[in-house]
């Protein structure tokens, strides 16, 4: 086949992809008979009513001297690991606020950290494109530093996020600026599977965030600069299970909903969204957008759900942290002031 | 739900390297073009599978109903009012705990710092 014939084929295939995408979007729109807020209101639900004493800061953990980029709790919810671009991981006893470890990192540009399920190890990664594992029970070296017990190398871009697989201390998933996610065996340092990269259903831009399903640790979701989230089954590396469209900008953060059947996302477009894992439906948009000028809308940098899923905590680039009533899509700022959108 | 037009356009245009090369004057091997076409054909197959799936898929209200049921059944310490039973483990965050390395006592009336 000649070069120009191939080019024609490429143009035709591109057009077909665009046509199918449009048809898919239309069909999905038809299936969106209600969003979560509409349904909850139809069932007579009203928004959570916070008073000024309801959400009170009970601990302030001070010690980092640079921006804190990431933190993770142990499964028992009594210890925290935090990562800062002051070049350290700090392990905290969350009850007493005591620091139990301050780990000097080989690379200060850390972006993510995770506690192992057994509570003995922590992992971190960042601009060095590696994921470093520290065993908290190791002997410190001559300089008083905890040695790195394992380095996971192989990513061709920064490690933006990492998470230990909950029921397996030996497995970790990373997301990277090289557009892939990787499942690692921490004991050997080997890559078990690579998600995306060479395959067509992988992300087409940097992966910024991952979240493992707490109900089914074979499933995880990734968020990317390509404005999509993708669902992966760790047993099937060859293709994403589903791609979730809707955001108009980088998906900076993804988090599974407590029931394990939905997940939330936060984006540069200033919105959080709730997607249904199984069907792909976009169930709710959480948007503060009121200004005409898009540039005024702060971006969503990080999200977390409360244990029931009723509350969605969202951090924004302007330093605000808001609480969304997930069911009614109403918003509260810390301090008890209510803002209804 | 609005279409993610930008993202879709970028993907359908082909991988970034292909786009750049075309812009720089068609310095692109047949192999790479064939590979790009294969990827697009694979994408077409996936999109058609998804379209078929949507034929028998339930609407969003089904998932909304599930969300309502799942959130309202679980006790949640952050809510002003939440279903029981009371979880004794929550109290540890509001008891006076002395940090061994400082004189500070933490109680439930902490500072009003933004988290």
UniProtKB/TrEMBL annotation, chain A:
WD repeat feature ranges: 61-102, 152-194, 200-242, 244-285
Entry protein name: Guanine nucleotide-binding protein subunit beta
Family: Belongs to the WD repeat G protein beta family.
Pfam family membership, one: WD40_Gbeta
Keywords, ordered alphabetically: Repeat, Transducer, WD repeat
An example Gene Ontology biological process: signal transduction
PANTHER family, alphabetized: GUANINE NUCLEOTIDE-BINDING PROTEIN BETA G PROTEIN BETA
InterPro entries membership: G-protein_beta_1-5, WD40/YVTN_repeat-like_dom_sf, WD40_G-protein_beta-like, WD40_PAC1, WD40_repeat_CS, WD40_repeat_dom_sf, WD40_rpt
UniProtKB/TrEMBL annotation, chain B:
Main localisation: membrane
Chain ranges of the G protein gamma domain: 34-107
Region of interest called Disordered, as start-end residue ranges on this chain: 1-21
Stretches assigned to coiled coil: 30-57
Highest taxon, organism lineage: Eukaryota
One GO CC term on file: plasma membrane
BP GO terms, sorted: G protein-coupled receptor signaling pathway
Keyword terms, alphabetized: Cell membrane, Coiled coil, Membrane, Transducer
Compartments where found: Cell membrane
Keyword Membrane tagged: yes
Keyword Coiled coil: yes
SMART domains cross-referenced by the UniProt entry: G_gamma (SM01224)
Protein name stated in the entry: G protein gamma domain-containing protein
